[in-house]
Design brief:
Number of helices of chain A: 14
Radius of gyration of chain A: 25 Å
Order of helices and strands of chain B: HHHHHHHHHHHHHHH
Order of helices and strands of chain A: HEEHHHHHHHHHHHHH
CATH superfamily of chain A: MetI-like
Distance between the termini of chain B: 39 Å
Distance between the termini of chain A: 47 Å
CATH class of chain A: Mainly Alpha
Low-confidence stretches of chain B: none
CATH topology of the largest domain in chain B: MetI-like fold
Mean pLDDT of chain A: 86
Number of helices of chain B: 15
Largest sheet of chain B: none
CATH class of the largest domain in chain B: Mainly Alpha
CATH topology of chain A: MetI-like fold
Mean pLDDT of chain B: 88
Helix content of chain B: over 70%
Structural class of chain B: mainly alpha
CATH superfamily of the largest domain in chain B: MetI-like
Shape of chain A: flat
Helix content of chain A: over 70%
Largest interface: A-B, 99 and 96 residues
Number of strands of chain B: 0
Largest sheet of chain A: 2 strands, antiparallel
Strand content of chain B: under 5%
Oligomer: heterodimer
Low-confidence stretches of chain A: 295-299
């Protein structure tokens, strides 16, 4: 009798342990997503719901949504183009020489990621203020550039500001990912390359970069997710107001405006579903690349 | 021989010039924040941060009394709200996530592989994508404008589960077997044997999750409605509207919200790094 209840406990225990996760998944992920999917086919008024088929999806064919997708896409591509090679090279530099200095440099570059986006965005707004006396306008003035209203000047300036903010906040984090990747490369490979008389550049190109591939894929993936999810940066930079000509509008920003400002829940749901599909597709590709679907994860 | 030494020296010099210069540029925003917090808000509103702001001159610590006086010291309400949410969220998340992680790493059971894959998948999904359905759910279960609504969806953290799973898998199996021989129940083993040896993993995750909670912006922005319930980032965000007096509180508050994190970072650096790298790529 005793052994039987013990055996039962052993069978049931695993499911008790994972229960919080199952519940959280069902309540906070699956149920809301299904709910949104249904709503994306509806017109939602206060107290009244009407099924309108694919109409919300057809309405996506409008200039505002296209601008939002274009901005998110551009932001994602540019952040990847900057936030992979720069941290990679800095990590390689930080992996040589005296530990003491390296730790200091690494910490200073990492600290910006600990700063709240509200604080970071506010300081950026003030550094790039429109007045001709602001720090950035003074610096560009020395270089012979006219002072300008950075936040209002147009799509290029807007993107530059967003990218500067992203660089400031995320370079340090990606450096740490690459440093941890570098630690997994055996020293013997570099010794062998030395014996073959390889130059520093050849070692970087033939040994370091190929062996950092898993790290690079990982960082690329989180950058894609981060890029498509970007909203808070532009929300703070333009102080919660629409940016001129929507230069800072992103997919999540568009969703936020429709759902939380204009109260068009059905339309916002549709945008949410499209975003989910993009992200779902990207993460499945990620898991495939990393071989999570194979029996034993051979990478 | 001397030539080689010289190139090595030059290389080192070039490295320090590059990294040193970069670090100086990276310190500009926080240095600006520090000095700007001593300046009158209406100047900041009119001119932004100027070169004069960056000259450390006439700095008076008494300026910070403004945190108490402006708008009846609402700043400290926001500060304590942030603190309460941070502690509740972190403690619950540590407990629940390690509980799940134990189940996933110790037992062989049907569906384990699928659940593990799901955890990794959800680790990648940013909260921004789920805000709308989550918001609707919060209305249904009446958690809008309540602290519980801010932290409840985050307490079973896929990231923390993954982190703890890695840690528990690295522990010797004999510990668990010994517990069974001693007649402990499966849960007794977790609470009496595993939890007491997990403080290193707990500290790394505690710091990581506290920081995320402290800085969390979008979700509290959606859940919280009344001014006296705001967290620090949400409260500061409301001050971005252009009035001179707001800017006094905004900039001082921004500094006072940031300093604690940087101080914690300086003392517990290794935990930050450990928390970050575990979620990724050991392979």
């Amino acid at each position: 009798m005793l052994t039987k209840s013990k055996l039962n406990a052993f069978k049931i225990a695993p499911y008790v342990f994972i229960l919080p996760f199952i519940l959280s998944f069902l309540i906070f992920y699956l149920y809301p997503i299904i709910n949104t999917l249904i709503m994306s086919f509806q017109q939602v008024y206060p107290g009244q719901v009407e099924f309108i088929g694919m109409k919300n999806y057809q309405k996506l064919n409008n200039p505002e949504f296209k601008v939002a997708v274009k901005n998110s896409l551009r932001y994602t591509v540019y952040t990847i183009a900057l936030l992979i090679p720069i941290p990679l090279l800095l990590a390689v530099l930080l992996n040589t020489g005296k530990r003491h200095y390296n730790t200091l440099y690494r910490s200073i570059l990492y600290i910006p990621s600990l700063v709240s986006i509200v604080v970071a965005g506010t300081v950026m707004r003030l550094l790039f203020a429109s007045s001709s006396r602001s720090v950035v306008n003074t610096v560009v003035g020395v270089l012979g550039v006219q002072p300008r209203q950075w936040l209002l000047a147009g799509p290029h300036q807007a993107m530059i500001l967003l990218l500067i903010l992203a660089l400031w906040r995320w370079v340090g984090v990606n450096i740490i990912y690459f440093l941890s990747g570098l630690q997994n490369i055996p020293d013997e490979l570099y010794e062998a390359a030395d014996i073959d008389g390889a130059s520093t550049l050849q070692k970087l190109w033939r040994v370091t970069i190929p062996l950092l591939k898993p790290t690079t894929i990982f960082v690329t993936t989180i950058s894609i997710f981060g890029g498509f999810a970007m909203f808070e940066e532009s929300f703070i930079l333009w102080a919660g107001k629409p940016s001129p000509n929507n230069v800072g509008l992103t997919i999540v920003g568009h969703l936020y405006n429709k759902g939380f400002q204009e109260g068009e829940m059905g339309m916002a749901s549709t945008i949410g579903i499209v975003l989910l599909i993009i992200v779902f597709f990207l993460s499945i590709s990620f898991l495939k690349i990393f071989g999570f679907f194979k029996d034993e994860g051979k990478r | 021989m001397i030539d080689r030494k010289r190139t090595k020296l030059m290389k080192g010099l070039a490295k320090h010039l590059l990294l040193g210069g970069l670090c100086l540029i990276y310190m500009v925003p926080l240095y600006s924040l520090l000095l700007a917090s001593f300046r009158p808000g209406r100047d900041l509103l009119r001119y932004g941060i100027t070169m004069q702001t960056l000259v450390p001159k006439g700095l008076d610590v008494r300026t910070f009394a403004g945190l108490y006086t402006i708008r009846d010291g609402i700043y400290f309400t926001w500060f304590s709200n942030s603190l309460v949410i941070m502690v509740a969220q972190t403690l619950l998340a540590l407990f629940l996530s390690s509980f799940v992680a134990y189940g996933l790493s110790v037992y062989e059971f049907k569906g384990r592989k699928a659940i593990t894959t799901l955890v990794i998948f959800l680790m990648l999904v940013p909260i921004q994508i789920l805000i709308l359905p989550l918001y609707r759910l919060m209305i249904t279960i009446k958690l809008i404008d309540r602290f519980v609504g801010v932290f409840l969806p985050m307490v079973v953290s896929p990231f923390a589960i993954f982190f703890f799973k890695q840690y528990i898998s690295g522990l010797p199996r004999d510990l668990i077997d010994a517990g069974r021989v001693d007649g402990l129940s499966e849960y007794g083993i977790f609470f009496r044997i595993i939890v007491p040896i997990m403080p290193p993993a707990f500290s790394a995750m505690a710091i990581f999750m506290s920081m995320q909670s402290w800085n969390n912006f979008l979700w509290p922005l959606i859940v919280l409605r009344s001014g006296h319930k705001f967290t620090l980032p949400i409260g500061l965000n409301t001050l971005l509207t252009p009035y001179g007096s707001n800017y006094d509180l905004l900039i001082m508050g921004a500094l006072a919200a940031t300093l604690p994190i940087i101080i914690v970072f300086i003392f517990f650096q290794r935990f930050f790094i450990a928390g970050l790298t575990s979620g990724g790529v050991k392979g």
